[in-house]
Amino acid sequence: MRQLLISDGTTAAGAYTAGLLGPGAVDVVGLSADGHTPLVGGETIADYSAIRLIQGTAAGRANVVSPWIDGSSVSRWTGQSYDAQQAQTSTITIAGTASAAFNATVKVTSRAIGQAQFERRSFTVAVALGDVQNTIAAAINTAINANLPAFLASSAVVGNVITLTGQTFDSDPYRVLSSFETQEDIDGTFTTTATIAAGNTPDLGNGGDGNLIVELEASLQGMGRGYYDRVQLPVAPPAYAVAATTYDLYKLGFGNAAPGSIRGVDNYRDIVIAYAAAGAGQADFESKINPWLASCPGAFAPVNL
């Protein structure tokens, strides 16, 4: 099971008011006879055998809390600084001069949805005898831009090289991250064959882009807040991720064995803490959780983002 906690980076964890943490803060508390006690930087598993993560919310709303995390059950502690989404690019390089008139065709097929029927486009231009590579490339680029498919952000040409750039993911208005395939069909009368080289592949993971965190939070609302039935329970729970914010990500994995739990299904938890990059209180959070995790049996290296 996975849980997401989000800090907007506006404040460090401070005093609790009527049991509530300040909005936007994320705190680390230890299990004590009094229920929980906020950790002080440098405290270890010798001070508290288990910790809990707490996210402050808007005034009057209950804190978002993780389960108790026993130090002996922690299996993973990693982090990832914000990394911008990378759109897929592909290049089409035209080489040579036409020794006869022919038709040049470029086909582009979207693979983003992962299943057929894939959106596809075909672009054909007539090439005249003697046309040079730059002329042919410019004609193909013009044809593509005249009917640019939605999964492409742009098509540009420099000399004899056409560069196709896909879309990045957006949560509102919703747009999937592009993944596409390019093919060419150059008539055999051309003196040399046009070549197509694939560029960088899109990063489908969460790199801290706010749009991806918005999507992750929405996908976890059923698991974390019981928001499964959107017909009988139409009131959505509050959301805390902001598309325009960039986040650093901390990832904590631990066992949560309990009587009746199913091995590999509900006996393991993964917590993602999305912290607004370079936000206030981020160093305070790290100063609390890193020493405690370093003192656990797994002796986890500190994560400083």
Can you walk through the features of this model?
- This protein is an alpha+beta fold and 305 residues long.
- It folds into 2 domains: 2-83 and 206-294, no CATH class; 89-198, Immunoglobulin-like, CATH 2.60.40.
- The protein contains 3 helices and 18 strands.
- The protein has helices at 133-146, 210-225, 282-294, and strands at 2-7, 26-32, 35-38, 50-55, 64-65, 69-70, 74-80, 89-93, 102-110, 120-127, 152-158, 161-166, 170-171, 174-175, 180-186, 195-198, 247-255, 268-276.
- The strands form 5 sheets. Strands 2, 3, 4, 5 and 6 form a 5-stranded antiparallel beta sheet that branches.
- Mean pLDDT is 83; it is low at 188-205.
Give keywords.
305 residues; alpha+beta; Immunoglobulin-like; five-stranded antiparallel β-sheet; four-stranded mixed β-sheet
N- to C-terminal distance: 25 Å
By secondary-structure content and strand pairing, the structural class works out as alpha+beta
Radius of gyration: 26 Å
Strand-residue proportion:
25-35%
Q: Tally the helices.
A: 3
Main sheet summary = 5 strands, antiparallel
What overall form do the CA principal axes indicate? elongated
Mean pLDDT: 83
Unreliable sequence segments: 188-205
In helices, the fraction of residues equals: 10-25%
What number of structural domains do the residues give?
2
- The succession of helices and strands, N to C, reads EEEEEEEEEEHEEEEEEHEEH
Number of strands: 18
Question: Helices, strands, pairings?
Answer:
Blueprint lengths: L1 E6 L18 E7 L2 E4 L11 E6 L8 E2 L3 E2 L3 E7 L8 E5 L8 E9 L9 E8 L5 H14 L5 E7 L2 E6 L3 E2 L2 E2 L4 E7 L8 E4 L11 H16 L21 E9 L12 E9 L5 H13 L11
